[in-house]
Amino acid sequence: MSLDEYKRKRRFEETPEPAPKLEKKSQHRFVVQRHAATRLHYDFRLEMEGVLKSWAVPKGPSLDPADKRLAMQVEDHPVSYYDFEGTIPEGNYGGGTVMVWETGTWEPLSPEPVDGVYVPGTEKEAVAMLAKGDLKFRLKGKRLNGDFALIHIKARRSGSKGNEWLLIKKKDDYVVAGFDIDSYDTSVLTNRTMAQIAGDAKSAEWTSSPPASRGKVKATWLTDAIARVDLKRKKAAAESANETPKKKVKARRLAKTETKKE
Ligand code: MN
Questions:
Q1: 42 CA distance to ligand 1 middle (Å)
Q2: How far is the CA of 41 from the centre of ligand 1 (A)?
Q3: CB within 10 Å: which end of the chain, N or C, has fewer?
Q4: What is the C-alpha separation between 131 and 115, in angstroms, rounded?
Q5: Which residues partner with 149 through β-bridges?
Q6: What distance in angstroms lies between residue 65's CA and the mean position of ligand 1's atoms?
Q7: 16 CA distance to ligand 1 centroid (A)?
């Protein structure tokens, strides 16, 4: 296993994402991250062989077996990506907000059913199933539970990268017909919405006043931050402008009183 591709795609002095580090042991956790990059998608990751095996799923996982979700396999991620939530600055690989949409544990299932049902399998079997392009597993999470399969689609078109898989829910007690992924719109870690995560990240970056030497990439959000401060000033100015009529009335009353006095 290698995190070379993960490392090559990122500038760690700019992105808050975790460093590429291989773990010796795997704890069979899984994570689903909602990622508002150029295109909104969900990243499905299984902890295995000291890394997170990763797939970008445009429509996200489903609990409905009728939904065969396209899942593009991407580079392995470090295990510490498991609880990464925040904003990857614009101009960086995968720039955009990341939410931890689901976490839990997974276990490999047997490659073949035993008496008609899939039973827990071994890590070795999982590695072999992954290599073969037909990985069966069981999830234990907060929002996703039950048996799933990841099936590699054989590259037929020339020019196909060969990284296309299907993520499919198997029939069991956890099926939800017509599953709507948008029925869950908050982080399982922090309970925040995408907007709240994005807002927090931007204000955190703004208040930490990064050095000016961070260059071009940072310029966009810096401009945004300045624009927001300007907007606040304008609002404040508008509010004081609203006060003016009252003051004028008061002034006029005072003027009248003075006239009476005369
Ligand atoms: Mn992603």
A1: 6
A2: 6
A3: C
A4: 25
A5: 136, 168
A6: 24
A7: 14
Q: Are 56 and 74 in contact (CB under 8 A)?
A: yes
Residue-wise pLDDT for 82-140, tens only, equals 999 999 999 999 999 999 999 999 999 999 988 888 899 998 999 999 999 999 999 99
- Those residues of the chain that have pLDDT short of 50 are 205-219, 221-222, 243-252, 256-262
pLDDT score recorded for residue 161:
79
pLDDT at 231: 62
What would the DSSP string read from start to end of 190-233? T---HHHHHHHHHHHHHHT---GGG-HHHHHHHHHHHHHHHHHH
Tokens of 187: 């982080």
Q: Residue 177 is encoded by which pair of tokens?
A: 């017909």
Distance 94 CA to ligand 1 centre (A): 6
30 neighbors 1 (Cβ within 8 angstroms): no
